[in-house]
Amino acid sequence: MTETAFSQISKHALTISLSCASASPVRLLRYRYGGLSWRATEKWNRDNSEILTSEGRSRKEADGSVARWCLAQGQLDQDSAGILLMSSPTNYNHPEPLRVWPETQNKRGDVFINFSPTKDRDWLLLPGQTYTLRYRLLVYAGRRTREQAESHWQHFGNPPRVSVRLK
Questions:
Q1: What pLDDT was estimated at residue 160?
Q2: Alpha-carbon gap, residue 107 to 149, rounded angstroms
Q3: Which of 28, 35, 69, 156 could form a disulfide with 115 if both were Cys (CB 3.0 to 4.6 A apart)?
Q4: Contact, 81 vs 74, CB < 8 A?
Q5: Ordered DSSP codes for 113-148
């Protein structure tokens, strides 16, 4: 068995830590769900929402593709809103495989996005090791462009580094 702990939720990142609960290794088997999942409001469907990935894929092509980030946005009453899900470059199997529900989901086209690091391969967890998955979720009013999403990911995935030299 493994222990999963949501060790940090902050403005910086959601961090998921995985470690073996015993002296035996654990193999997380290849499966279409895993990692971080997000399900949209019931108000969104195939007619009033859109999905775009860092690789330029729309909802129709996103499932099974890999991405650094995934943007979901749509209509809410009289306004638009959305979420940008970002995966850290330090995550296992990054850029991560996506599980995105098809436009026919639940006959309405319900929206669901999952970063699933084990979607296309097993993951062996060794005793005594801690494995970390980091994500950032940016929730916003209005709409975002691909360029804005990429800029947000760059600030998360490749933050500026500062070094100070004392004389």
A1: 82
A2: 29
A3: 35
A4: yes
A5: EEE-TTSSS-EEEPTT-EEEEEEEEEEEES---HHH
pLDDT of residue 13: 81
CA distance 37 to 28: 17
Query: Which regions in the chain score pLDDT beneath 50?
Result: 1-10
Q: How many CB atoms lie within 10 A of CB 8?
A: 13
C-alpha distances out from residue 144 to 15, 80, 126, 147, Å: 24, 10, 40, 8
Q: What's residue 12's pLDDT?
A: 67
Q: Which two tokens stand for residue 50?
A: 């859109």
Residues 66/91, Cβ–Cβ less than 8 Å: no
Which residue's structure tokens are 């529900």? 101
Q: How far apart are CA 58 and CA 18, in angstroms?
A: 31
DSSP assigned state of 12 = S
Eight-class DSSP state of 157: H
What average pLDDT does the structure give for the chain?
91
What pLDDT score was predicted for residue 97? 98
According to DSSP, residue 155 is labeled H
Sequence length of the chain is 167
